[in-house]
Amino acid sequence: MIRVLLVDDHPIVRTGLRTALDGVDGVELIAEAATGEQAVVLAERLRPDVVLMDLQLGPGIGGAEATRRIRALPEPARVLVLTTYDSEADILAAIEAGATGYLLKDTDPATLVPAIRTAARGETVLAPHVASRLVARVRTPAVSLTRREIEVLQLVADGHSNKSAARALFVTEATVKSHLVQVFTKLSVDSRIAAVSAARLRGLVR
After folding, report:
1. Cα separations (Å) of 82 from 1, 12, 76, 189?
2. What pTM was estimated for this model as a whole?
3. Which of 91, 41, 47 is nearest to 69 (CA)?
4. Three-state DSSP class for residue 175
5. What are phi and psi of 57, to 5 degrees?
6. Running DSSP on this structure, what letter comes out for residue 142?
7. Per DSSP, what are the bridge partners of residue 53?
8. Which of 99, 161, 164, 197 is the most buried (most CB within 10 A)?
9. Average of per-residue pLDDT across 195-199
């Protein structure tokens, strides 16, 4: 029996996934969490085999950080990301945090259960679109940004100033400026607006 913990801050989504997994042979939904913090607590206490993890969870830690903490537990569950976000920033953050797989919420329900079983075995499962993005990143390293550069650029895209981005990342404002200089060079732009525009066209940020 594969024991599953579901993490999503939207009750309607949790209801839909609960229905999709109800009665599936060999799969048991043992608990649900609406926040990243709650997910980590339940993962440590219940020791599920697989955690279905959304990435954007409202206030508190996000899905990537929750994944990192769950994977750091003494007996970590496999984490299968199930989200609507498919930017390179989200994909890299989740995979670097230790996620075993990455699926989008428009995944056919008939694909979800086999994916859970694959993740439970410790094998990687990626949505085709996600796999294509990762392959493209490997093939075009010259225009690829580091995880930290993407994090900085995502904050800029979300409307943060250099100062507030620095606070969010617990770094100095000078560090943020340094990352942006590297971003400008890699994307061949000369302004924050142009960098965000170019990054969105490449699917690097939301």
Report:
1. 21, 14, 18, 33
2. 0.69
3. 41
4. helix
5. -120, 20
6. G
7. 7, 81
8. 99
9. 84
